[in-house]
Amino acid sequence: MNKDLKLISDDSYGTQKRVHFVCEKIAEESPNIIMDIGCGTGMLLTRDVAKAFPKITIHGVESDLTTVEYAKKANGDISNMTFFEEAPKEQKYDMIIASEVLEHVDDPNAFLQYLYSKLNPGGSLLITVPNGYGIFEFLSSVETILRIFYRFFVPKQKSNMPQTEGLMTLAISPHLNFFSFRRLKRIFSESGFRIESYRGRMIACGIFVSPMIQKFSALTRLNLTLADTMPPAAVSDWMFLLRKGEKRVIAAKPRHSLYTAIKRQLSVKLTQQG
């Protein structure tokens, strides 16, 4: 797969850059069976992966039953992809994809330990997660405040049903965790994973910023390519390939900081306003 993705055709969220990163790592790892957990309708990532690798079995796992039923109908033409509410109990995987999921779970350590248990020895975890202190999360907070206090300024969006293209999951879930890069590395290590590769996804996206960036292809490209060279703290979203190790530390559920508590409340408010 060509590593030099034509980012000029992407958006400010690096949607295609994420697909490219995932497919590139799959090509390097050559797994036989993959789980994409938290896959939604499958239309934003799972489908692309299944089409790119028709000989690999893909299990899409999504906790919302309505979304699973929609995904089955929308992706019925892809033979190597199956959707479940829960992963088959006895099934182990060569690779697991958890893209934009970790920030939605209450206990990230427990979630990662579950993924650890579902991987074959030496298996890998592809994970993408937003920078909890990045530009995107800051703008999300701004958006929430505007929606709460100035709803006329930011029009209400309908989000209770899928878009026509089936790109939106029915399972609407707020962000519950807001990670620093340092905390994320510690959680990975505690859960038995080591980082094998990392790539920044984009510098800026979100309300106000994305419409401006996406008007100019040069800005879109700059936004995505700078993320490859800037330090993680300056990037809005992180992409990792993690390797399952032999040892892990079962960590106690951490206490949430005041920052996380406030951000959680704002995130829940935004979901309710949506």
Describe the structure.
This protein has one domain (7-273): Rossmann fold (3-Layer(aba) Sandwich). 36% of the residues lie in helices and 18% in strands. The protein has 9 helices and 7 strands, in the order αβαβαββαβααβααβα. The chain has a 7-stranded mixed β-sheet, sandwiched between helices. α5 (135-149) crosses α9. It starts with 14 loop residues before the first helix and ends with a helix. Residues 1-8 and 157-168 have low confidence and may be disordered.
Write the layout of secondary structure elements.
Blueprint: H1 15-29, E1 33-37, H2 46-52, E2 57-61, H3 65-74, E3 81-84, E4 93-99, H4 108-118, E5 119-130, H5 135-149, H6 181-190, E6 193-200, H7 209-213, H8 217-226, E7 237-244, H9 258-273
Parallel strand pairs: 1-2, 1-4, 2-3, 4-5
Antiparallel strand pairs: 5-7, 6-7
Helix pairs in contact: 5-9
CATH architecture: 3-Layer(aba) Sandwich
Mean pLDDT: 86
Shape: globular
Assembly type of the chains comes to single chain
Question: Strands of the largest sheet, in order across it?
Answer: 3-2-1-4-5-7-6
What is the CATH C level class, in words? Alpha Beta
Largest sheet, described in full? 7 strands, mixed
Number of domains: 1
Brief rundown of the structure:
The protein has 274 residues and is α/β, with parallel strands linked by helices. It has nine helices and seven strands; from the N terminus they run αβαβαββαβααβααβα.
Features:
274 residues, alpha/beta, Rossmann fold, 7-stranded mixed beta sheet, disordered N terminus
